[in-house]
Queue: 4 jobs
Job 1
Amino acid sequence: MATGGSGDVLAGIIGSLLAQGFSAEKAAAVGVYWHGAAGDLAASNRVSIGSLVAGDIVEAL
């Protein structure tokens, strides 16, 4: 996911998991999984992968 802002979405997911008490290792692993799954879901709803924006990933979460 090389779309602008997608790294910020990932950082937000991981940060929220850390704030809930997850260990750094578990927060990173779970965060990357959720981010990827949400990206796949968001992309499946688009005509072109090039039209995917970070907000689409957030909505898919």
Note: The chain is about 70% helix and 0% strand.
Job 2
Amino acid sequence: MKKVFSYNANIEKNAYMNWRTNKYEEIHNMNVVAEGFIEGASILIQECLEDNCDTKADILIFPILFSINHSIEVYAKSICWSLNVLLGNNSKFNKNHDIRGIWLTAKQKIKDFGFGVGREEDDFKNMIITTDKYIDEIFNVIKNEDINNAYHNIDFSRYPINNRWENHFYIKSFDNVTVDLENLYMIVEDIKQCLNRLSGYYCQLVSQKEEISD
């Protein structure tokens, strides 16, 4: 077998893992990875919408949802990291997978940093409406009337069972658990635009701050 990390003479058939990253720009690298996951989810959804006669969506929905959730997690951690630098805090981000908690922390840090001309608070609130609704829906589904369940069920798209060896909600259900792919695509595109703008903006401010300090 040819090695996975190898070169193809046709450059269009290569994936260059370090063309968009930079060892001196750690927060930027977080954004690159986050963008990759949500872009991957978007492409998979489009493929299913174009042709699902083989019902591939029934299995691709798992990597799709995982990629969306992981992208949100990495974007939110990137935002926290940027704002900790800008606010002078000696920390980066919480090392867990509590998407809702990380996102709430990111929003609070955005408020602590403040708003201004061209970045009004009302504009921020409108920008994050879809992201908020998506995260809240996921959280409410996995906690299932007990907030402690959210911790155990956060990997619902990675495994059919949680870390207590219990079936996830879609396995337990007697009724069909369905995802409207057209609706999900619109949600993903909105989240992608929202988090890409926010993470990119604060990352740029960090870069500017570092240039001044140099």
Note: The two ends are 48 Å apart (CA to CA).
Job 3
Amino acid sequence: MKKLVLIKGAGDLATAVGHKLFRSGFQVVMTDINVPTCIRRTVSFANCIFEEEWEVEGVKAKRALTHLAALDILEEGVIPVIPDPEGVINEKLSFDVVIDAILAKKNLGTYKMKEALVIGLGPGFTAGEDVDVVIETNRGHNLGRIILKGRAEADTGIPGNIVGFSRDRLLKSPVDGVIKNIKKIGDRVIKGDIVATVNGCPVTAAIDGILRGLIYEGIEVKAGLKIGDIDPRIEPSYITTISDKGRCIAGGVLEAILMWENEIGNEELRMQS
């Protein structure tokens, strides 16, 4: 019997985890909010909440509205993604592993369970207290590291550096309102180009590059919300493939699950589970 895994969140990093676990033989169910605000939609299974179906590097996902529909989708060999901000699915199905991949920088309601291994990604969780395992998500030497006691590194608030660019890569909403996209993911942009508007206010590119991510058109956004991401490397293949960061984090998750499943490695993990 394949282990059943719940992943809370279906953005690009959560998708990297789901993709690796699915390809490693696990059954994967993912959830997200009713109107996802993921940026890298081309590599986010959350996008199937808008599009009904989505595929990332050969792995397919499909929107499900109930736990019964999710079970049917699993039988098809596809990952079900459920709009479920309240986590109702966790009460309907019995999961072997629960992974909080929301990346909210705080715990929004994930806690240890007697019958399942519980993993938290990034800051906001304490391994050995509210979750069994924490996976480091901060770029650097410890990225993807398994933490069996304690917390991940604190959120720096500084976006990852790509060939010398950090904050300038990001596009943020200037006001509250509804977003209208002028450009699309994969488009080349030049500094000063209008990428989108929010209630008529332009959102312009601060650097040259390729538009790697852009929030779904027509949704309501708040001032200051990240709505887009420019990659200065201008490599089109990066738009449709899982990032190095995502693969590293996913590898840490897989290792933690196998430690728990095979009862090898660290005594603390065996005791916690």
Note: The first strand starts at residue 4 and ends at 8.
Job 4
Amino acid sequence: MMVSVGPMGERGYTLIEVLVALLLTSLGLMGMAGLQVVSLKQNQSAYMRSQATILAYDIIDRMRANVAAVENGNYFLASGTEDSDCETTAGCTDAEMAAHDVFRWQARLAEELPLGSGLVCRDTDPDDSTDGDITTPACGTSTDTDLPIVVYVWWNDERASNAVSTRLAVSASL
């Protein structure tokens, strides 16, 4: 008499196959979640870099509107002063307007970028690494009007890989 083993001998294999498939699916989903986290970090870093660029061009545009103050070096300040008279059509001098522009620009940097700060100067080499960092912003001190105007913006980009202080340098000619 022959005894048929049939399906009784294969019962455990389907359970193991389901567990392996579940394990592989969960590993894939965890990998996708990790990629999403990295993508969000990079997206935020790109957003901050875009904001820094927009703000750098903002002060350059303000300087183009007040060339006399640029020629006198009035925009090359560590910090500006707020002057409510400059909010009217013709309420202040070129120098006062420059100080007001620097004040407003630095306030926007602090509002829109984490630990944001910035300086405007004339610099022989805008891309050198000797121009300070987020804790000690520094800028070239040349008064040579043939040198390009450089706008430096620093901010804390803790989302970037191995970076705490990020700097953007934009050169301009008026």
Note: The chain has three helices and three strands.
